[in-house]
Amino acid sequence: MEGLTFQEEGVLPTKQVTLTRGSGNYYWSGNIYQTLQEAQQEAEVLGSGAVAGYIDTYTYGVFSKEKLEGFFQVDKPSTLIEIYDEGQKLILISYNNEVPLVFQGASKGNEIALTQVGSSRVYRGAIGVVNGQNSGLTPYNQVGMEEYLYGVVPCEMGASYPIEALKAQAVVARSIANFQYNRYSSKGYNLVDTTASQVYRGYGAENVITTQAVDETKGELALYNGQVAETVYFSTSGGVTEDAQYTWGNVVPYLIAVSDFLETEPAQTAWTRKITLSEVQACLNAQGVNIGQALGIEIVSRTPAGRVLEMRVIGTNGSKSYKNENIRSFFSSTKEGSLKSRLFSFQTFTIIGGQTAPPASEEEKTDLVIMGASSLGQGSLSDLMLMSARDMVEAPEQLVLLSKEGITLVGGTNDKGSNTSATLGGSIKHNLPATEVQMGDLIIYGQGFGHGVGMSQSGAKGMAKAGYNYREIIEYYYTGVRVGH
């Protein structure tokens, strides 16, 4: 994709073109012309609806819907693409699906050639169409990798994020685009412009800061054992990322759960959902599941990081279990759609990232050393007040102090009550119950947004603000991965 160049075949005398699938029969003279201009001149001489047709590079013919003298019918006319000018006059036929024509706007007044598609989207590179798909013509943008990233990074991460976070986003976006490069090749293109690949909105989405992030990491990739890694990412973890095996069922050594201890400004704050039993019933009906009337939901098990691993919907005539990401999508037929994440409970909970503190004695948890402009003082955490721009409040029982060097917990206890707790390498702790049952209408308390695997964009922002560079951010979220070319 890098360094794309296009061979100019000719110029169409129109400000815009409309492309449609060929309809009816077409006939061809059999004569070959080396330039578009020669074919156009011959078509004008013949008249009677004759039109120039693209066959291959530097190879053109003359086509007609009328059977003119010496013309013969072409095979598979439905694979033809008809190109109309702004006045809806047919000006060109494309008769090659293997080496198709692409279209590029003139660069008048611009340093680069831009092509507008529809009423708003503008793209670098060129625009082509794939024919023969079930839905008809499918437009695509043919563009170099770095220019593609210019239109991806600002859509996936806001330009207001720190530059090191944006550079991390550029590298992981480049890596996943390379990893998934042939995912849609059987359909005639490489990637799609939605979250199924990455959100891409072309030139109109570009921003000078995100473009800088792409340029300053040009060609850099996330590598695991020398191979490009599938660097999936998401918005907000809620305090801890997730293993790929507990999300999609396959073990990926570099996609394992880590503490998201610097996700201090989450794009998605803690959320609450109210879901009625009638909505749960609608979800069952939409999936063709018959277990009678929905009665409630059971959280059967959790991952070590705390996300729901298995959920069971209970009905009057049986139950139905859902696992991994199917848990989120089960709720897609509710008023608010799929759940934002699988880090949820039927009661409030907390996730503490970083190093898990050992039980503190009463003396240890009340001592606090406070540094002033000229001296150090010692006081009690219970006497500490926290001041914001709007008000002043008493300090909570426990403070979490974050820095580039790590995390320190001040105060609090480790009383687990009746809940279970889990740790990952001593770095993640939660107070989520292992199992829960909620009969009747649901109130769901959740944290995070997205599948939870790989890099948390909110966490990357926090790490960048704490002084980490883009390489350190990537190598933290993707275990064993190194940034290189």
Keywords:
32 strands, four-stranded antiparallel β-sheet, alpha+beta, single chain, elongated, seven-stranded mixed β-sheet, 485 residues
- Which regions have little confidence, pLDDT < 50, spanning 5+ residues? 354-366, 412-426
Largest sheet properties: 7 strands, mixed
The 3D shape can be described as elongated
Q: Percentage of helical residues?
A: 10-25%
Number of helices: 10
Strand order of the largest sheet: 1-6-7-3-4-2-5
**Quaternary structure annotation:** single chain
Give the radius of gyration: 29 Å
**Mean pLDDT across every amino acid position:** 84
Content-based structural category = alpha+beta
Distance between the termini: 15 Å
Total count of strands: 32
In percent, how much strand structure appears in the residues?
25-35%
Brief overview:
17% of the residues lie in helices and 28% in strands. By secondary structure, it is an alpha+beta fold. Helix 4 crosses helix 5 (208-215), helix 4 (163-179) runs antiparallel to helix 9 (457-465) and helix 4 packs across helix 10.
